[in-house]
Specification:
Elements (H helix, E strand, L loop, with lengths): L3 E8 L3 E3 L12 H12 L3 E5 H10 L11 H12 L2 E4 L10 E4 L4 H10 L4 E3 L3 H8 L5 E7 L7 E2 L10 E8 L5 E7 L2
Parallel strand pairs: 1-6, 1-7, 3-4, 3-6, 4-5
Antiparallel strand pairs: 2-8, 7-10, 9-10
Helix pairs in contact: 1-3
């Protein structure tokens, strides 16, 4: 059975978005993007909330046709189209190609999805991740600490009703100063 992996970029002070959903401070260069392509390309699917799905769906399906896209971006466009997307939304009735909409997080449905996915499932964000964490559905955390202090915005771990005992299984630094901290959930 696959794992559910929460993967998020954060600032040193714990924010994944600055004010007004600003993520321009994320230090995604070609090396880090290739790492993401390798990691996400091996997944069985992508779990997203409506906002993230719609933002990604606006750009990635045709990013490889954009002359300003880097080679890693063009490669990710193909990964995006290929991987199934599982979108959680109470307001979105349907989604685009290779995507299925779920109206809510039902733990039994998520466990069945993990068993059927054909690999690990990756997710990011805060609200949906918080719901998954409260239900004990997150198996692994991949936190990419960016060498910046944002000062304000949205934190990944906003909820105070979740605790986890984690084991560090990998740490890796990239040339741009980003550090990956990879933890397995003991729970």
């Amino acid at each position: 059975m696959g794992k559910i992996i929460l993967s998020n970029a954060v600032s040193v002070d714990g924010f994944f978005e600055g004010p007004d959903r600003d993520i321009s401070w994320h230090r995604v260069d070609e090396e880090l993007h290739r790492h993401f392509n390798d990691e996400i390309g091996a997944m069985g699917g992508i779990i997203e909330g409506r906002v993230t799905y719609q933002l990604m769906e606006e750009f990635w399906p045709t990013a490889d046709q954009d002359p300003d896209s880097t080679p890693a971006m063009a490669e990710f466009a193909g990964i995006w189209r290929r991987l199934p997307k599982f979108v959680f939304s109470r307001t979105l009735p349907t989604a685009g190609p290779n995507a299925k909409v779920f109206a809510g997080v039902v733990p039994e449905e998520i466990r069945a999805l993990k068993a059927e996915a054909g690999g690990d499932l990756i997710m990011s964000g805060a609200d949906l991740a918080g719901t998954f964490m409260r239900h004990g559905l997150v198996d692994e955390f991949r936190i990419y600490v960016n060498p910046v202090v944002v000062g304000q915005g949205r934190r990944v771990f906003q909820s105070s009703d979740f605790t986890a005992d984690l084991d560090l299984v990998e740490s890796r630094s990239f040339g741009n100063g980003v550090v990956l901290l990879r933890y397995l959930n003991r729970g």
